[in-house]
Automatic annotation (TrEMBL):
Species this chain originates from: Amycolatopsis tolypomycina
Binding-site residues for Zn(2+) 2, renumbered to this chain: K131, H164, H193
GO MF annotations in UniProt: hydrolase activity; zinc ion binding
Taxonomy, superkingdom: Bacteria
Identification of the protein by name: Phosphotriesterase-related protein
Record keywords: Hydrolase, Metal-binding
Taxon lineage: Bacteria, Bacillati, Actinomycetota, Actinomycetes, Pseudonocardiales
Residue numbers bearing the N6-carboxylysine modification: K131
Length: 300
């Protein structure tokens, strides 16, 4: 049964109009063997980071940490309740390199089923999106497997699909697979890390497909391309794609939590963008666009 579009937060479904000022891609909890010693696994630190974001004017944060990487959904629910900030959690799988082979084998036989259970289950907080990942400049066999499972989960639930593009690459290939071959509507697909591959022609071509484009920086990992974020966004707005743009912080390490941190999106990045693009445009990126990108008429 379907109804009006809603956003599935860790505390339950809400009207998209309630979401407000949104960090559309970040992490309060994240732990990967690829980032030893930089785990985001401290609930008190997560709550403090979320409080700073709230004090800066934020009302919602979307955590893209997928299945098996320490997403801590129950802790998300607790700190959402304590801080009053809406939190959206994720299911899905990251690149294979983030997992031990045994961990992948445990879910490989029914990947779509795992995703659907996370999205619709009756025990514990539910995820509100499926996060998957491409490989560097290609869709490898693992990405094809996870994206196919994500498409099945979308078909069964209506959930939006968020995609980590490795260093911002393979965006068109991802759209071709998800929207072309797997029939996921473009407006249900969010491509992340477009700022990491600041090719204006590619960004424009991706935008013309109708998907949402995530510019999730700056962060400590992306400083080489951060300075091109502003001109890239301006070009897309001038081309008529302002309604497809999302902004996030993408804090994936303990070091980045403190410098710049999730609040940087609102304390520093948004004011700079406002001077260049205008307040209405930036407000749309932070409020109206995420309210559409993460909303769906849930099927289960």
């Amino acid at each position: 049964m379907t109804g009006d579009p809603e956003i599935r937060t860790v505390l339950g479904d809400i009207d998209p109009a309630e979401l407000g000022v949104t960090n559309a891609h970040d992490h309060l909890f994240f732990a990967s063997a690829l980032l030893p010693g930089q785990e985001l696994d401290d609930p008190a630190a997560a709550a403090a980071a979320l409080s700073r974001f709230r004090e800066a004017g934020g009302t919602a944060l979307v955590q893209w940490t997928p299945h098996g990487l320490g997403r801590r959904m129950c802790e998300l629910a607790r700190i959402s309740r304590e801080t009053g900030v809406h939190l959206v959690g994720a299911t899905g799988l990251h690149r294979a390199e983030h997992y031990a082979p045994a961990a992948l084998s445990r879910v490989a036989d029914d990947l779509a089923g795992v995703f659907v259970e996370d999205l619709t289950g009756t025990t514990g907080p539910r995820a509100g999106l499926v996060k998957v990942a491409g490989a560097f400049h290609t869709i490898d066999s693992h990405a094809r497997l996870t994206m196919t499972a994500a498409a099945v989960a979308h078909e069964e639930t209506g959930a939006p699909i968020a995609v980590h593009l490795e260093l911002g690459t393979a965006g068109l290939e991802t759209v071709e697979l998800l929207c072309g071959k797997l029939d996921v509507p473009p407006e249900k697909v969010i491509l992340g890390h477009l700022n990491r591959n600041p090719d204006p022609a590619i960004q424009r071509e991706i935008a013309e497909t109708g998907v949402f484009l995530g510019f999730d920086g700056p962060s400590r990992a992306n400083h080489a391309t951060d300075w091109r974020l502003f001109d890239g966004l301006e070009a897309l707005v001038e081309a008529g794609h302002g309604g497809q743009l999302l902004l996030g912080g993408d804090t994936t390490t303990a070091a980045a939590r403190h410098q710049p941190g999730a609040a940087y999106l609102l304390t520093t990045l948004a004011p700079r963008l406002t001077k260049q693009l205008g307040g209405d445009v930036v407000t749309a990126m932070l409020v109206a666009n995420p309210a559409r990108a993460f909303a769906t008429s849930w099927l289960k």
